[in-house]
Write a structure and sequence with these properties.
With 204 residues, the protein is α/β, with parallel strands linked by helices. Helices cover 40% and strands 20% of the residues. Bound molecules: adenosine-5'-diphosphate and guanosine-5'-monophosphate. Adenosine-5'-diphosphate binds at residues 11, 13-19, 133, 136-137, 168, 171, 174.
């Protein structure tokens, strides 16, 4: 059985992380997305249990007090956290797990690293393009967009702490880069590009 690896992805809001992830997960087998809990309201098109587990602040606080979260952070005024039991259950399947974390959550997980991980930072080509994308997405209020833009510069200063940097300028090129990183990390772990163990070749 293969041992799953964590792929931790961070980006300023609107950089295109969700778009990139969906593209790469659609054509690369063996990847599962870690569904976080959040107190943020769902955006149009988001589904409970798929994009996030959408919960109230009091539910989040109860779970936090019970020690459910492996890591949690307050980001842009909302709470976000990774459920420890959910993540362990996903890892037990042998799949590689993709975590969408902010820079605080990444630091926590990196420091408690009992599980092998690779960290990737996705940046837009410029802050003006980031603003264009946030507005073009049409999902956030003006107040939310301004707060996310204000936080973007600070988040981008953490990019150097990550192992990989992906500039999401031309989408196709960024998709190719993300796919290549996952395949390279699997090869480093002596696994096939699909994520399977080399032992699978012996059965053929
Ligand atoms: P994030 O998950 O990082 O907040 P999204 O994936 O929701 O960002 O992308 C924000 C917006 O930018 C979306 O409308 C998406 O279609 C668009 N977008 C993503 N990547 C690119 C790109 N390379 N060029 C132009 N627009 C992009
Ligand atoms: P959004 O509201 O745009 O989906 O996400 C806002 C921010 O929260 C992003 O930086 C995203 O990476 C981060 N985030 C999402 N889930 C988690 C989580 O479980 N833990 C932490 N620390 N950050 C998260």
């Amino acid at each position: 059985m293969t041992t799953g690896k964590l792929f931790i992805l961070s980006a300023p809001s609107g950089a295109g992380k969700t778009t990139l992830l969906k593209r790469v997960m659609a054509d690369l087998p063996g990847l599962a997305f870690s569904v976080s809990h959040t107190t943020r309201l769902p955006r149009s098109g988001e589904h409970d249990g798929v994009d996030y587990h959408f919960i109230s602040r009091s539910q989040f606080e109860t779970m936090r007090e019970q020690g459910v979260f492996l890591e949690w952070a307050e980001v842009h005024g909302n709470l976000y956290g990774t459920s420890r039991p959910d993540l362990l259950a996903q890892l037990a399947t042998g799949l590689d797990i993709i975590l969408d974390l902010d820079v605080q959550g990444t630091a926590i997980l990196r420091n408690s690293a009992a599980i092998p991980s690779a960290s990737l930072f996705i940046t837009p080509p410029s802050l003006s393009e980031l603003e264009r994308r946030l507005r073009g997405r049409g999902t956030d209020s003006e107040e939310t967009i301004l707060l996310r833009l204000k936080n973007a510069g600070k988040e981008m200063q953490a990019a150097a702490d990550y192992e990989y940097l992906i500039v999401n300028d031309r989408l196709e090129q960024a998709v190719d880069t993300l796919r290549a990183i996952v395949i390279a990390e699997r090869s480093r772990g002596h696994r096939l590009p699909t994520g399977q163990s080399i032992e699978i070749l012996l059965g053929a």
